[in-house]
Amino acid sequence: MSLPSDFLWGFATAAYQIEGSTDVDGRGPSIWDTFCAIPGKIADGSSGVVACDSYKRTKEDIALLKELGAKCYRFSISWSRVIPLGGRNDPINQAGIDHYRQFVDDLLEAGITPFITLFHWDLPDALDKRYGGLLNKEEFTADFENYARLMFKSIPKCKHWITFNEPWCSAINGYNLGIFAPGHTSDRNKSPVGDSAREPWIVGHNILIAHGKAVKVYREEFKPTQGGEIGITLNGDATYPWDPEDPADIEACDRKIEFAISWFADPIYFGDYPASMRKQLGERLPTFTEEEVALVKGSNDFYGMNHYTANYIKHRKGTPPEDDFLGNLETLFYDKNGNCIGPETQSFWLRPNAQGFRNLLNWLSKRYNYPKIYVTENGTSLKGESDLPLEQALEDDFRCKYFHDYVHAMAKAVEEDGVNVKGYMAWSLLDNFEWADGYVTRFGVTYVDYKDNCKRYPKKSARQMKPLFDSLIKKAEVEAAEAAKPAP
Ligand code: PNW
């Protein structure tokens, strides 16, 4: 088992989850600042106001990355730091731009390759209030294009750009379930009220167009001189049939992935939405104009894959409710024969199943003709980790096993199945603000002591990463040297 010698590995974070300093250096509010202020939305009533204090500790974070041996680091830019009101006619904030440019310089100086995510959910709040944010195609896509251009121009040394992180989460969690900002949902007992049956599909469409516009700008105006690459990051779980003998469950397994991943990946690789989605959603799913197809089709230089878990899938009969977004099926932790998908974690939706990772890498590679893949997130929470005293929390054997098993499953997919994975970023470098879970759920390989000035303590899993990748990459180098030797 081995990985190519140019394989990049490292860690990932996102601006709102780690930076804090929400009113420092001219930053404008994002929809997450507003959302966190709505009572009941965040489990512990917290917000990203302090988070890991990373805005002020960039040197310390880089030193940590270096100490852990990371070759790359994925982070996101807070749009409202660089354009506080967000729009194309709004003033830019040089202090915000300088911060990220300096950060990239410092990473490169430390020998760490930066991956920048332009949008990890923290839309400038002014754009939501001004015109409905992600729901407004003309305005949102033009403003995102403008913001993306400003970043490409300002940070020419970055060679790996991700337009959007997990548009599925923005659309479904933000506009159907209402558990993420801006919190729209059809549930009349909750506010803000939206339209769960329609808004997510409009938001998804608008994100695809905005992605396409940013990619066009990068390819036409920057790539020729900067020579970098650009893509989108999508999330999706692996699937197994609830009843392995039932063709309807087997079919539902593909449909589940289509509703999660192909919703975005099919337009990007093929130019249109999957047939299964059109069939169920009809006119509620927008259609692409010819001009939009030209923008979106072929717009990935690489596929960014976020992956955490797997589910058993049971098909449902009859007409699904209008607000269904799964594809008329149920997701379960046990199959028909009582097999369990994996052990519990602190996250209700996450149960480790490393074989599923290999299966999904294969599924994606076959459907999209073996694209270059960067795993831009993979990781786990631990049940009850927040209740442990510091010394015990540092012994995160459960997380060590998770990373060991998942990374080995990936290496098998590369070596034995011909899947083209070129990088891997563990989620996350630090325990951080886990969105609606607040600080209760920890995903870090580094413990952050929120009660003691955000002090950082690398856990066992943090130190395991370098030997884990060294063993897989070095072996490849040894094998290559062996192969190069003349036959005796
Ligand atoms: C991803 N789900 O989010 C995000 O990109 C990260 O910011 C986040 O911290 C990480 O995974 C861990 O949660 C997800 O409900 C949030 O299936 C929820 C789900 C999936 C991914």
Automatic annotation (TrEMBL):
Q: Which residues form the signal peptide?
A: none
| Hydrolase recorded as keyword | yes
GO MF, one example: cellobiose glucosidase activity
Q: Name one Pfam family in it.
A: Glyco_hydro_1
**GO BP term, example:** cellulose catabolic process
Alphabetically sorted, this entry's keywords are: Glycosidase, Hydrolase
Catalysed reaction(s) here are: Hydrolysis of terminal, non-reducing beta-D-glucosyl residues with release of beta-D-glucose
Which SUPFAM superfamilies does the record match to this protein? (Trans)glycosidases
| Enzyme Commission (EC) number | 3.2.1.21
Q: Does the keyword S-adenosyl-L-methionine apply?
A: no
Q: What class of enzyme is it?
A: hydrolase
Q: Which family does it belong to?
A: Belongs to the glycosyl hydrolase 1 family.
What is this protein's function per UniProt? Plays an important role in cellulose degradation. Shows hydrolytic activity against several glycosidic compounds.
Query: What is the name of this protein?
Result: beta-glucosidase
Which species expresses this protein natively?
Chaetomium thermophilum (strain DSM 1495 / CBS 144.50 / IMI 039719) (Thermochaetoides thermophila)
